[in-house]
Structures are given as structure tokens and as C-alpha cells.
Design a protein that fits this description.
Structural class: mainly alpha
Oligomer: single chain
Number of helices: 5
Number of strands: 0
Helix content: over 70%
Shape: globular
Order of helices and strands: HHHHH
Length: 118
């Protein structure tokens, strides 16, 4: 049985897609990032690399894990993180063209970790 964070990851993806269609680029960037993060964390829990309740430094830990596992997907994850930081903390909004370019890679990342859960 797959970890419950996989379901949350799918929910975050669906929310990101809805926000993207509605033109809410900053919200979509946030949810695409968290969809990826939740899928990575769920996988890490399943393989014993993280505990289910772990919260300290988990984003960095997820990034380092992914960097060891798949450099291409790590690059996507890191770019999503940068867009999330822009969306959540910086005064200028996320450039929609940047998110449009990253979205297919984000979907590939999500699909890869969903596949691993099967």
C-alpha cells in the first residue's frame, strides 16, 4: 500500500492544474512544488529514508535524496522550488512562461514517484 502523502500529492497536483487554468500562476507554482515534494517524501518514507512525521529540514533532505536518485528530476524539483520561493516570498510574480516550461517535467517527476509506489 502506498503512503498517504501520495494521495495528498495528487490532490496538490489537481489544485495546481485548477489554479493554472484560472491564471493563478503564483498559487499554481506553490501547488506544483508541493505536489512534487509530497511524492518524493512519500517515497522516502516507503524506502526508509525519512520518517512519516519528520518535519525538520525535510525539503533539503528531499532535494539531496532526489539529486542522488535522478539528477534530471532533481533539476526540475530545484527549479520548482525556486518558483515557489518567488511565488511565496518575493514581490514580483512568477513568470507564466517559466512555469509553462517546467510543468511537463513536474508531471514526469510526479509520475515517476507514483510509478515507484505501485
Amino acid at each position: 500500500m502506498s503512503h498517504p502523502l501520495f494521495a495528498r500529492s495528487k490532490e496538490s497536483w489537481a489544485t495546481a492544474e485548477k489554479l493554472w487554468r484560472e491564471g493563478e500562476v503564483n498559487g499554481a507554482a506553490n501547488r506544483y512544488y508541493y505536489s512534487a515534494f509530497q511524492a518524493i517524501k512519500a517515497h522516502m518514507v516507503e524506502v526508509g529514508e525519512m520518517t512519516p512525521t519528520e518535519t525538520d529540514s525535510v525539503h533539503g533532505k528531499a532535494g539531496r535524496f532526489l539529486k542522488r536518485e535522478n539528477r534530471t528530476l532533481y533539476d526540475v524539483f530545484d527549479d520548482l522550488r525556486e518558483l515557489r520561493v518567488t511565488a511565496d516570498y518575493l514581490p514580483d510574480p512568477v513568470d507564466p512562461s517559466e512555469l509553462r516550461v517546467l510543468r511537463p517535467g513536474a508531471e514526469k517527476l510526479l509520475n515517476e514517484f507514483q510509478r515507484r509506489a505501485l
